[in-house]
Amino acid sequence: MRSSRTIVIAGAGIGGLTCALALAARGFHVTLLEKAELLEEVGAGLQLSPNASRVLIDLGLAPMLATKAVTPETVSIMTARSGGEVMRLPLASRAHPDAPYWLVHRADLQGALLAAVQSHPDIDLRLAAPVQDIVATDIVRVGDLEASALVGADGAWSAVRAKTFPSIQPQFSGLMAWRGTCDAANLPADLRPTGIQLWMGPRAHLVVYPMSAGTRINMVAIIPGEPLAPGWNAPGARDDIDLHFSRARWPANARAMIAAIDNWGRWPLYTMPDGGAWHSGRIALIGDAAHAMLPFAAQGAGMAIEDATTLAQCLGETESNDELPAALARYTALRRPRVTRVQRTARQQGQIYHLQGPMAFARDTVMRLLGPRRLQARQDWIYHWRL
Ligand SMILES: Cc1cc2nc3c(=O)[nH]c(=O)nc-3n(C[C@H](O)[C@H](O)[C@H](O)COP(=O)(O)OP(=O)(O)OC[C@H]3O[C@@H](n4cnc5c(N)ncnc54)[C@H](O)[C@@H]3O)c2cc1C
What we know:
It contains 13 helices and 19 strands. By secondary structure, it is of the alpha/beta class. It has a domain at about 5-40 and about 105-170 and about 270-350: 3-Layer(bba) Sandwich (FAD/NAD(P)-binding domain), CATH 3.50.50. It has an eight-stranded mixed sheet with strand order 5-4-13-14-15-12-17-16. Strand 4 (about 75-80) and strand 5 (about 85-90) form a beta hairpin. The protein is globular. The two termini are about 30 Å apart. The model has no long low-confidence stretch (mean pLDDT about 95). It binds flavin-adenine dinucleotide.
């Protein structure tokens, strides 16, 4: 029998698709409204740390994801000062099959989530259905739909947030993310990463890792830049990236990997201010709509996935529609301290990665003194999360 409790979700990104599955698993009927006519993802990779992979596995997605994901054993921290490795951090992904560290192609993750959503009888996915008109009283009206609650999972430029909290706006960070991919075979064997490589350099950093069962390489380069129009990205010109990763500042091995990429695109990095409102009555925000963050802790999607399952749990604990506003307030209270700490960690990591001159030397020395286990243990509070 169809549930009498319908939740509308705006946005079928990673957050919205996960939220739809988590709510449907708790007996809600979900209408998922997506403004795009076709669900497509950026042709790039995504790191899913154990806190996120655990949720996806609990939702039954392991069979579709595990064969395509790469489970890296280590993160190599490299320095542009010498071209060498400062340290290699263990990830022990394979040791924890219930929560591995996964490197996935975004399209593979979206495909797995979408297949599960489309085969669920209690989820109604509508494409080319932008959320615009919202009226909230003791129910929520979204266009001509009526729902018990509305979840805004519609990204950094959220229409739900703009209607609900118009004064809260994304802010440009001054940084651009350049993303590109290549066939693993395009890189010489000695440069082909088997795990994650993080390259720290003057006012820039690079992240390189394999995906698509090791057949493709994903690269993200972070450099200063000018904002584009809100919500836009653009192709990236090779001359620009070569300028930032010049021979004077970057070693030959990093430049050879950059040269192998032939499809650069650039994204201005916008973030939401810490501490903005996430819920009002029967409306709540999740993922980038609530807390778009710098990607330097590789946790934006992870936090959207955690939000989704936490929100579903809070709503699932209610017995009547009257209790839903209090449940959304509980969701915000549960999530905010952790997400704020992750946002702060991401900002600090960016500052550390981009140090120059003597400060970069001091950073590399401190990292070596701390050693791999202690450095890796600093991520435990992120990775060990469970609901
Ligand atoms: C360079 C870079 C690297 C990153 N790497 C990682 C990583 O390794 N690991 C990680 O965890 N995170 C990473 N992130 C962050 C991650 O990509 C985002 O945090 C995550 O995709 C946010 O998901 P979301 O579902 O909240 O929003 P989105 O992915 O933005 O999805 C929003 C959806 O809503 C739709 N929409 C928008 N407006 C409307 C409307 N009015 N009505 C209906 N639908 C609407 C959009 O079309 C879209 O489908 C990275 C980000 C960047 C920029």
